[in-house]
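@channel sequence for tomorrow's demo:
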Amino acid sequence: VLRVDPVMFWQNVTNPTVVHAMTLSLTTGTIATGIVVVAGMPLAYLLARRQFRGRVVLDTFVDLPMILPPAVAGVALLLVFGRRGLLGPALETAGVPIVFTATAVVLAQVFVAAPYFIKSAAAGFAEVEQDLEQAAALDGASGFAVFRYVTVALAWPALLGGAVMTWARA
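structure tokens (generated this afternoon):
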């Protein structure tokens, strides 16, 4: 760090190509994190609180992007969303181009980063004592109010930590 010329560093950081790349990464990473939090919270709650047939398979699919090399994840996404992929032709016909767009970037980021939030949130939800939720319900709180004011409030550190890890990975 001490050997970096500050003038050259500033020139490189303010280069329009670098600014565009950083802006794209920050924007798409933030969008991907929002999607993961909204879609991942119910899944994390389900994995933390319910036993059901296929739970192990679902949990394995959540873990899969963490263990796949990035190149394999990219090929998998192309096989699904590419122009000749599983959903690609239907999306192209519907006028929703995916390949080589910011949408593709967000999809890739969601794919590789979602496990970080889901696993952290599931651990946080599992730590919340169900007696506290039941007490709130007995006092007349609706199911959503119990979730919002008790469960999420007590699992907040894990949810925030998962969201930060997701944003960093995305």
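heads up for whoever presents: DSSP finds eight helices and no strands in the chain.
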